[in-house]
From TrEMBL:
It comes from Limihaloglobus sulfuriphilus. Belongs to the glycosyl hydrolase 32 family. SUPFAM superfamilies: Arabinanase/levansucrase/invertase, Concanavalin A-like lectins/glucanases. Its EC number is 3.2.1.80. GO terms for cellular component: cytoplasm. Signal peptide: none annotated. Keywords: Glycosidase, Hydrolase. It is an enzyme of class 3 (hydrolase). GO terms for molecular function: fructan beta-fructosidase activity; sucrose alpha-glucosidase activity. Pfam families: Glyco_hydro_32N. One of its GO terms (biological process) is sucrose catabolic process. This is Levanase.
Length: 736
């Protein structure tokens, strides 16, 4: 006896059945089961290769939120194996073929095809092409009315060995109704004769469905999104850049219950940009945030020919809250002064190699065959990034021949893919003493245990050898030199997240020596930035003032910029130096001097003033004005001092112990020791959505998400203290 979604009733009897799968159907004819995969073997279906085994698989499936197949058996191929599963010939006798499908979403590689007359006339794939996702199967179906009466066969294919290299299928049947909740596999062939697809978008908390642009069986682009339902107004419009494919005929592919959704998409040379995008009440006024969509890690910053380039992990199709970034692009902005940022076209798009995870920039001064041997410009900018489609991840190169306006991938990517673990975030630099390029690469598994940075080196950027590894480190490696205040010589600074201790250190550093192969520590591992909302930071390559300048992602940890069509922002660019603090060479972070150019005339300028007097002056300020506040505090023996910002952030310093503590909403976020004498310097950058604080000339640096509240007090000092100098500047808006 076979399993079924429906009661198979006599012809002419109307029936309506809903099972716990969420699939329903209405029909006046009996449905025809093709296969429910409940038997121990595939029967007269033909198996090739190893991916599908000798018979149907049993559940439960990994990462499945709830049982999404029916009965005990289903088709579920195996990662790293390939093969096909082909049905016997059957006659198409109903208008639709319904089925459940999940797993990998790679057209032609993890799919089920319907063949008529030896040709593929319909195809379906799972929803997943990027890490994460779910194994759950979902209802899907094809309109096969044009083929009624013809003989057909089904072929389930798994030809992919990498990530999501498998396909899940269950309960295939013919019906005169599309199953309730079923998503049709839609395809539209279109000539790209204009620069942008105008996409009507919905804000969402879930990933949505995968929209792909394909040609000749290749995924040129993919994006997860949600279109409005029929008659529903979109939350926003996004002009998706397809100028790269101008003049080519491609296919738009999408799963939807609305058969016309792809037909409604239009191409245009006009880019839809909201003229009020930068005027939102929660938009930071002098911190960078993307015009639209999600941002996270800072990627590949560099300076060249008078222009700072900054890239960042980006999902423009996310819009604003509550949506998070589901796909990873490289957004791109430029600046002449590190303060005012201008949007450039997206540098890297997700494609058949997967999402574009974080990485770094390298300015190439020599000729490397196959990369820049036909281009005269030196230095020549390269981007190194992680592609996620393979298993494990792989490392890729992109290059620009037009001063960073557009970016093209190296034709023989990937340049490194040989680690049997999850790797990402390549940091690449030239090591002059050893005459090698060096790559630091995060891996979730090293020879010394879970998590760490591998060190690789290469003569030509294309062939890489693993030479050592450093255990315990996690994500977004950075590696640079700073002058030691003790010796005057340069020492290497290893930077990243460190997870081999509890609590984990989101921003850690360690000083050491590096010979091109091994990093030899000369200090313990220390907290670099107190956070708690500072992460994914990198330094600018080739700073024109020969500084080490770092920008970070202000990770909001669940808080969001309500009512805006963007989510997350960046910190200010920070200058990094080593200073002697209590006899220890400490990494200190302070805003770059360019920030002073955003200051207006002082709102408050006072000397030798008590906390009470200062608070009266501060209380008279308009709290909607973003501020840069500098204070030099005279410490009194035995008295703690501090400051409260936006009635939310509470800093408290105890001079007798040296401990500085940050509480947010009456909850302790972090604490650290700073080293002072009788005075204490502090600087606050108070903006919409973010506050940065720098104590004792950057010995303790903070970035804290803090949404604007028109009823809050902007700043209040506390404790029995005298402020020797207090200056409060209004900050100019960088957007207009």
């Amino acid at each position: 006896m076979h399993k079924s979604l429906f009661s198979f009733l006599p012809v002419g009897i109307l029936f309506f059945v809903i099972l716990n799968t969420g699939i329903a159907a209405v029909s006046t004819e009996k449905d025809i089961l093709i296969n429910d995969f409940e038997a121990e073997t595939y029967g007269d279906w033909v198996v090739t290769g190893d991916a599908f085994g000798d018979g149907p698989a049993g559940g439960p499936l990994p990462r499945e939120k709830k049982t999404s197949y029916i009965g005990k058996g289903l088709v579920s191929s195996k990662d790293k194996l390939v093969g096909t599963l082909t049905s016997p010939l059957f006659k198409i006798e109903r208008k639709y073929i319904n089925f459940l499908i999940g797993g990998g979403g790679f057209a032609g590689q993890t799919c089920m095809n319907l063949e008529v007359g030896g040709k593929v006339v319909r195809t379906a794939a799972g929803p997943n092409v990027t890490p994460g996702g779910s194994e759950s199967l979902s209802p899907s179906g094809w309109d096969v009315e044009p083929f009624m009466g013809k003989t057909a066969r089904l072929r389930i294919i798994d030809s992919l060995r990498g990530g999501w290299g498998h396909i899940n299928v269950d309960h295939i049947f013919q019906s005169n109704e599309l199953a309730e909740g079923a998503l049709m596999q839609l395809k539209r062939e279109i000539l790209i004769d204009a620069g942008y697809i105008q996409l009507p978008m919905m804000l969402r908390e879930e990933r949505g469905e995968t929209f792909t642009i394909e040609k000749d069986g290749r995924i040129l682009r993919f994006m997860d999104l949600e279109f409005p339902s029929q008659g529903e107004k979109p939350d926003f419009w996004y002009s998706y850049d397809v100028r790269e494919f101008m003049g080519e005929t491609v296919q738009f592919c999408f799963r939807s219950s609305n058969a016309k959704v792809l037909d409604n998409l239009e191409l245009s040379d006009k880019q839809i940009i909201d003229e009020n995008a930068y005027k939102g009440i929660n938009r930071p006024r002098f911190h960078f945030s993307p015009r639209i969509g999600w941002m996270n890690d800072i990627n590949g910053p560099y300076w060249l020919d008078g222009v700072f380039h900054m890239f960042f992990q980006h999902d423009p199709l996310s819009g604003g809250p509550p949506t998070r970034g589901f796909n990873k692009y490289w957004g791109h902005v430029v600046s002449s002064d590190l303060m005012h940022w201008q949007e450039r076209p997206i540098a890297l798009f997700p494609d058949e190699t997967g999402n574009c995870y974080s990485g770094s920039a390298l300015l190439l001064n020599e000729t490397v065959r196959g990369i820049n041997d036909k281009i005269d410009k030196r230095p020549f900018p390269l981007l190194f990034f992680t592609g996620t489609a393979s298993n494990p991840n792989s490392q890729h190169i992109a290059m620009s021949c037009d001063d960073g306006k557009t970016w093209n991938r190296y034709s023989r990517n990937p340049v490194f893919k040989d680690l049997g673990s999850s790797t990402r975030d390549p940091k690449v630099l030239w090591h002059e003493p050893s005459k090698h390029y060096v790559m630091l690469l995060y891996s979730d598994e090293t020879s010394h245990g879970p998590d760490g940075f591998y060190i690789l080196r290469s003569k030509n950027l294309l062939d890489w050898d693993i030479v050592s590894n450093i255990p315990g480190w996690y994500e977004c490696p950075e590696f640079f030199q700073l002058e030691s205040p003790a010796t005057g010589e340069d020492v290497w600074v290893l930077y990243g997240c460190y997870r081999a201790v509890e609590p984990k250190i989101n921003c850690a550093y360690q000083l050491g020596h590096f010979d091109g192969i091994n990093f030899e520590p000369i200090s313990d591992i220390r907290v670099a930035h107190q956070g708690p909302n500072f992460y994914g930071a990198l330094t600018f390559v080739n700073d024109p003032k020969d500084r080490i300048v770092m920008m970070g992602w202000s990770r909001s940890n669940g808080e969001s910029f309500e009512g805006e069509l963007f989510n997350q922002c960046a910190t200010m660019p920070l200058r990094l130096t080593l200073k002697n603090a209590g006899g220890i060479e400490s990494l200190c972070m302070e805003p770059v001097e360019e920030l002073k150019d955003l200051r207006g005339s002082p709102l408050i300028k006072a000397e030798n003033i008590s906390a009470a007097s200062a608070n009266r002056k501060l209380g008279a300020l308009d709290n909607s004005i973003p501020l840069d506040v500098e204070a030099r505090i005279r410490l009194q023996p035995g008295n703690s001092v501090g400051a409260v910002i936006n009635d939310l952030l509470d800093f408290n310093f105890v001079p007798s112990t040296g401990w500085l503590t940050l509480n947010k909403n009456n909850r302790q976020e972090c604490s650290t020791m700073i080293h002072t004498d009788n005075t204490l310097t502090v600087r606050f950058l108070i903006d919409r959505g973010i506050v940065e604080a720098f104590w004792n000339n950057g010995e303790a640096a903070y970035a804290v998400s803090a949404l604007y509240d028109e009823k809050s007090r902007i700043l209040e000092f506390k404790g029995d203290l005298i402020i020797d100098e207090l200056t409060v500047y209004p900050m100019l808006n960088i957007w207009y």
